[in-house]
Amino acid sequence: MRKVITKIILYTSVIVIVVWCVFPLYWAFVSSIKPDEDLFETNPSLIPHRITFINYVKVFSERPFHINIINSAIVAGATTLLALIIGVSAGYAIARLKFRGKVAVMSIILAVSMFPQVSILGSLFLILRSLHLINTYSGLILPYISLNLPLTVWVLQNFFRELPVEVEEAALMDGCSRFRLLWSIVVPMSSPGLVATGLLVFINSWNEFLFALTFMQRPEKYTIPVAIALFKEATQYEIPWGQIMAATIIVTLPLILLVLAFQNRIIEGLSAGSVKG
Amino acid sequence: MILPAILVISVIAFFPLFETFYDSFYSFSLRPGSVKRFVGLMNYERLMEDPRFIAALKHTVFFTVVSVFFETVLGILMAVVVHQKFPLRGLVRAAMLVPWAIPTAVSSQMWRWMFHDQFGIVSKWWVKLGIISPGTPILGRPSLAMWAIIFVDVWKTTPFMAILILAALQVIPEELYEAARIDGANAVQRFFKITIPLILPTIGVALIFRTLDALRVFDVVYVMTRGAVGTETLAVYNRHVLMGRAFTGNWFGYGSAISVAIFVIISIFAVIYMKSLRLKFD
Predict the structure, then answer these.
(1) What is the per-residue pLDDT for A236?
(2) Using CA atoms, how far apart are residues A268 and A84, in angstroms rounded to an integer?
(3) pLDDT tens, A179-196?
(4) Tally of domains within chain A
(5) H or E element in which residue B37 lies
(6) Which range marks the domain in which residue A12 is found?
(7) With contacts defined as CB-CB under 8 Å, which chain A residues touch B151?
(8) What's the topology of domain B62-232?
(9) B12: which of A132, A146, B77, B88 fits an S-S bond (Cβ 3.0–4.6 Å)?
(10) Residues A135 and A72 in one domain
């Protein structure tokens, strides 16, 4: 009897957790495929009676949402690539080389991860404006690299430390340079760590809002979060909730698939870096 | 090898921070040709007397304390549940990453729709539960709006918290529980005497991270209410001064002073974090 009760409590809790986590996404999906008459209904039904994909068409025909997707892909992609390249060499140096001021360097890098972004918002805007980088991809990629480097360096140096030293020592004995050693031996061996870190950096940059909102001021330069957050500004009357929900689903699905495919890697990365969400 | 990293961080993080500090002693606007005028500590004096700044500080602290509290307590419970054995456990854990993976600005829009005064499903449920009367604009009422924002933050962050705590739960050796069971400790005693003490370090780290994050909250507030009806936080107010007012009047220096204030507040917490992490290299 006790066992049965424990089971019931456990299963109920599990169901509550799952509903809690995915219901908003489910609701966005249901709302996106309802025709407007069913959407603006004071007693909304949990399951759609009629299905339409008109909102998915309108998102691309009535507004430049595909451009927003391209913007986000370019910015997040470039950030991930560059942050990894810079992060790999810094992380390797910290993990393997002996040099003076290492603790100081690491403290500085970590300190940056605690920076409240808004504290540098104004002056970064001034700097980017004087360099004519407002409304450009570089104007967003550069700050994003800097935001993500602490995480990248921290997780990668932890990862490099775990690698067997013997292989590297043997390569060094054979006259391999540190630089070649890093890129042709260490990096290939670290692909799991790189994937985990890269995913986190990509998701961070894909999701960033404050800088994107401030440094991209023309609608055709908006990244996805900004485009979706400022959706209503495009129409004059009713907020197009059906379209907003369609856009939400379009940009969330790839993230969900990434998460499902790389669940364990992401959890490892999160726990190793114990990073901000 | 480490030079590029240091270079990027210096140019994009430290230099702007220094610049912000410097600008906070001046008065000027973002209009082209605006002349910088040195005003000493005037911006900071103004800060102390600005009711909107004081209010934003209060809202931020309230948001931080309440949301971090609920996230921690619910996060522990959630972690304990998914630590048990049940079918499809992997899938359930993946589902827990969903709220974290959706951009906050995007999920805030999802919630705005659910909080819609006429057609929102959450509004409908809250009316049924007697929390609100029919037709109440949840995001338009003081105090109710702040609670709704906290609710969304708790939704997003609790599963994330749970996953961090779960990692700590998984390394507790089963023998400890066995021994306690033999000694006659019941489930509640085992939880408070074994589980909690062993996951305390993880909770501590997660707690400080969350606090730092909550203190600079921007996205959810900006999207849900734009800071209206008593929900304006420090970051939202700061951006309003820097990127709104400063285009028309000499407010940029004052905005910089707010930025410095936020930086100082968060640094205090960050120092505590650095201390508790006990950094070790080599």
Answers:
(1) 60
(2) 17
(3) 888 888 888 888 888 988
(4) 2
(5) strand B37-38
(6) 2-52
(7) none
(8) MetI-like fold (1.10.3720)
(9) A146
(10) yes
Tokens at A272, concatenated: 């190793």
For residues A228 and A149, give the distance between their C-alpha atoms in angstroms, rounded to a whole number. 27
Structure token pair of residue B27: 């008065």
pLDDT tens track for A195-206: 889 988 999 999
B53, B223, B237: which is closest to B145 by C-alpha?
Answer: B223
- Reply yes or no on whether the pLDDT at A237 is more than 70: no
Q: Is the pLDDT of residue A125 over 70?
A: yes
**Residues in chain A closer than 8 A to B19 (CB atoms):** 123, 126-127
Is residue A69 located within the same domain as residue A6? no
Identify the domain boundary among A18, A37, A52.
A52
A39-59 confidence digits (pLDDT tens):
888 788 888 888 899 999 988
The number of CA neighbours under 13 Å toward the Cβ of A248 is 33
**Residue A166 confidence class, pLDDT cut points 50, 70, 90:** confident
Residue A68 bridge partners (DSSP): none
In order, the DSSP letters of A127-165 are HHHHTT-TTSSHHHHHHHHHHHHHHHHHHHHHHHHHS-H
Rounded to whole angstroms, the Cα distance separating B188 from A46 reads: 38
> Tokens representing B231?
């929900």
- Model pTM score: 0.90
Answer yes or no: do A93 and A12 share one domain. no
**Quick one: tokens of A131?**
């360099």
Query: Is the Cβ of B117 closer than 8 Å to some Cβ of chain A?
Result: no
Q: Do B159 and A94 touch (CB under 8 A)?
A: no
A64 shares its domain with A151:
yes
| Interface pTM, i.e. ipTM | 0.90
Q: Which residue has the higher pLDDT, B149 or B118?
A: B149
Chain A: give the shortest CA distance to residue B195, in Å: 18
Task: Collapse the DSSP code of A106 into the 3-class scheme (helix H, G, I; strand E, B; otherwise coil) and give the result.
Answer: helix
